[in-house]
Design brief:
The complex is a heterodimer of chains A (about 110) and B (about 110).
Chain A: E1 4-7, E2 10-12, E3 19-25, E4 38-43, E5 50-54, E6 58-59, E7 67-72, E8 75-80, E9 89-95, E10 102-103, E11 107-110
Parallel strand pairs in A: 2-11
Antiparallel strand pairs in A: 1-3, 3-8, 4-5, 4-9, 5-6, 7-8, 9-10, 9-11
Chain B: E1 2-7, E2 10-12, E3 18-26, E4 34-39, E5 45-51, E6 58-60, E7 68-73, E8 78-83, E9 92-98, E10 108-112
Parallel strand pairs in B: 2-10
Antiparallel strand pairs in B: 1-3, 3-8, 4-5, 4-9, 5-6, 7-8, 9-10
The chains are: A mainly beta (about 110), B mainly beta (about 110).
C-alpha cells in the first residue's frame, strides 16, 4: 500500500501571504498510461471534504486560481497564494493511482 | 452536479450490523462509479470500498473484507454499505462519494459502543 506523507501537520498563515503544503508518496504515482492521480481536498470545520485539484494540477470548476497544484512522481505541492480567511481548514492529498486509494494525514491551516 | 445524501447511521453495539444508504440526485447516477470513505472524528480519511457503474465490480480495503459489502441500485439511484460484525474502530463519519471524489455527501456518523 502506498503511504502518503503530508507536511507540515499544522500551518499558521498570514492573510494575504502564501502557503505551501507538501505531499510525498512512498511509490511513484505515475501510471503506465502516463496519468498521475493525485488530488487535493479542503475540509472546512463541520463540512465534507471539497476537491480542489485533480490529476496533480487541474483545478476543479469554481475553485479560485489562488489554489495551484504541482509535482510529479512522488513529490507534490499545493500552494495557496494570497491566503484569505475562508481558506482555514484541513487540507488532504489523495493518491488514486494505485489500489487502495490513500489519503494523506492532513494539514491544518489556520490564521 | 451530483447530490448525495447518506442515511442509516447511529449507535450500534459491538458485533452488531448497520446498513448505510446513499441517495443520489442530479446528474446521471448510473454513469458514476461510487465509493464509501470514512473519517474517524478529528482524524484522517480512509477509503472503505468502491463499486463500478453497473455494480459488477466491487473493491474493498483489505482490513474490511468479509465484514462490509457495497451494493448499488441504479433504478433507485442509491448505493449502500452493509456493515457486519462492527467494532469500536469502525466508529467514524461515513461519506458517500463518487470514485473521483468530486462529489460528497454530508456524511453520517456511525458509533460502535456498548
Amino acid at each position: 500500500e502506498v503511504v502518503m506523507t503530508q507536511s507540515p501537520l499544522s500551518l499558521p498563515v498570514t492573510l494575504g501571504q502564501s502557503a505551501s503544503i507538501s505531499c510525498r508518496s512512498s511509490q511513484s504515482l505515475v501510471q503506465s498510461s502516463g496519468n498521475t492521480y493525485l488530488s487535493w481536498f479542503q475540509q472546512r470545520p463541520g463540512q465534507s471534504p471539497r476537491r480542489l485539484i485533480y490529476k496533480v494540477s487541474i483545478r476543479d470548476y469554481g475553485v479560485p486560481d489562488r489554489f495551484s497544484g504541482s509535482g510529479s512522481g512522488t513529490d507534490f505541492t499545493l500552494k495557496i497564494t494570497r491566503v484569505e480567511a475562508e481558506d482555514v481548514g484541513v487540507y488532504f492529498c489523495l493518491q488514486g493511482s494505485q489500489w487502495p486509494p490513500v489519503f494523506g494525514g492532513g494539514t491544518k491551516v489556520d490564521i | 452536479e451530483l447530490q448525495l445524501v447518506e442515511s442509516g447511521g447511529g449507535l450500534v453495539q459491538p458485533g452488531g450490523s448497520l446498513r448505510l444508504s446513499c441517495a443520489a440526485s442530479g446528474l446521471r447516477f448510473g454513469s458514476f462509479p461510487m465509493a464509501w470513505v470514512r473519517q474517524v472524528p478529528e482524524k484522517g480519511l480512509e477509503w472503505v470500498a468502491n463499486i463500478d457503474e453497473d455494480g459488477r465490480e466491487k473493491y474493498y480495503v483489505d482490513s474490511l473484507k468479509g465484514r462490509f459489502t457495497i451494493s448499488r441500485d441504479n433504478s433507485k439511484n442509491s448505493v449502500d454499505l452493509q456493515m457486519n460484525n462492527l467494532r469500536g474502530e469502525d466508529t467514524a463519519v461515513y461519506y458517500c462519494a463518487d470514485v473521483g471524489c468530486r462529489y460528497w455527501g454530508q456524511g453520517i456518523l456511525v458509533t460502535v459502543s456498548s
